[in-house]
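Data availability (excerpt). All sequences and predicted token strings are deposited with the supplementary files. A representative entry, Sucrase ferredoxin, is shown inline so that the format can be inspected without opening the archive.
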Amino acid sequence: MTQPDNFCATFGQQSGEALAGTGAHPERMVLIRWPKSRWSYAMREAADMGGPLRDAIQTLTKAGWRVNLVDRKNDAGPIGRVIVVPRRQSFDIPPDHLADFLLSLAADHPLTDYRSTHATAEVVLCCTHGQHDRCCAKFGFAAYRLLAAAAQEYRDRFDVWESTHLGGCRFSGNAVFTRSMRKYGRIGATDAAAIIAAESNGQAWLPSLRGTSHLSPEAQAAEIAALQAIGGHTQFPALAIDLLHATDSARDFHVKTHDGVYFVGCEATISRSHDSCSDLGDDLPLKERQAWKAVQVRKGVTPRANDLAAADGAGR
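Structure token line:
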């Protein structure tokens, strides 16, 4: 392998770490507009946030919400704008009332005292959190600019934001589409417009797809493998994914697509990578994590189904 530069994303790509199966992301999100210049290393905090607001964010996180800070240049929106996903609500909250608002949300209290607007466009988050990892500054911001530019052709469909940490700096540039809940990585110059075009049609752009976030890692890998088997870079998502058989190191799935049902057999593997750029150059060992790889993909009745049918027939 060619010696990588000082970016964990470059190392990960050169080492062949797969994107498929790495798309986990919570659906319940609270996005707080805060100037990027004041972001800190932590994805939920800014340098100029007061203690009560930090405490409220912590309470909201404990209540099961993912909290990210968002921003974008040349936008006149106020500090304290809050977008609640998946409710598709946007609130403009004065900074001195923001802590109380977040505590009300955490307690699941009615938010009728706060004026909201319905968010018609799909919020797209692109991690540009350079304070967290330099890959997100370099590759993430480049991906954001490309996605934002491509989205201009679909003005009423997408609302693209810079975001704090989305997970997987080593896959930068990363993005999450908050309605389809598809997560993308390694977004480059040839990917951004294709991703926006595909998502506008309810489809996925497979070359950059990390996974559909509500699925398990192995089911994400199975879905992507089945869609790739159909052919082409753009496909509609699976209609259903059924687990047929599971062991500690293997999973068999039926993946129902618009092209028919595919059998996908996945095996557990070990992925080795650096988590972040800060791990490079310090002789730190590579982090090992479980990953899932599709090792068998075929259209139609599964080998296991044939075996079960034969056994059933013999029993009669």
